[in-house]
Amino acid sequence: MTGSEEVPRVVSADREIAAGAARVFELIADPAQQPRWDGNDNLAEAAGGQRVRAVGDVFTMTLTGGNIRENHVVEFEEGRRIAWRPAEPGQAPPGHLWRWELEPIDADRTLVTHTYDWSQLTDEQRLPRARATTADRLQASLHRLAAVAERA
Fold first, then answer.
1. Per-residue pLDDT tens over the stretch 35-86
2. Which of 26, 89, 103, 137 could be disulfide-bonded to 111 (CB atoms 3.0-4.6 Å)?
């Protein structure tokens, strides 16, 4: 068995957040807000004015190491679901995907599911980091997202 077969290539975590779905979604869909709640400590900053509104949108993020990522939105349903595939600037995405799904429980509570899917990742250099992205890391983002969303 190889190392890539020992670790699930799709990991997810979920959490109930004591905030309405619209508030939570706004924090996710606006890249400038993402460094506030990133549980991987990977996101440094994103310029304002890049709020995602549709499949096909691309937003740019600066990582903590200074690298730039172009994030290609591949799934989008306002207030409910957003997913993107990161890539080096000007390059095709190498095959991993970040997804957020929101299910309103009521007006003031939302079940949020965060998924990292690297089942189509082909770049050998990215595999160690992909393997290290566990459900615990995703849960850290959910906890930080909840802390920000519940403050408002």
1. 999 988 889 999 999 999 999 999 999 999 999 999 999 999 999 999 999 9
2. 103
Tokens of 110: 């939302």
Please enumerate in sequence order all residues whose Cβ is within 8 A of that of 36, keeping only pairs 6 or more positions apart, or say none. 27, 144, 148
**φ/ψ (deg, to 5) at 6:** -80, -20
Element (H, E) at 24: helix 21-29
Residue carrying the six token digits 């549709």: 54
Whether residue 46 is contained in a domain is answered as yes
Is residue 2 in some structural domain?
A: no
Residue 132 located in a structural domain: yes
> CATH number for the domain including 107?
3.30.530.20
**pTM, full prediction:** 0.92
Structure tokens at 10: 């799709």
For the segment 97-143, what is each residue's pLDDT rounded down to a tens digit?
Answer: 999 999 999 999 999 999 999 999 988 999 998 999 999 999 999 99
Overall number of domains in the chain: 1
The DSSP code sequence of 93-140 is: --S-EEEEEEEEEETTEEEEEEEEE-TT---GGGHHHHHH--HHHHHH
Structural domain harbouring 106: 7-151
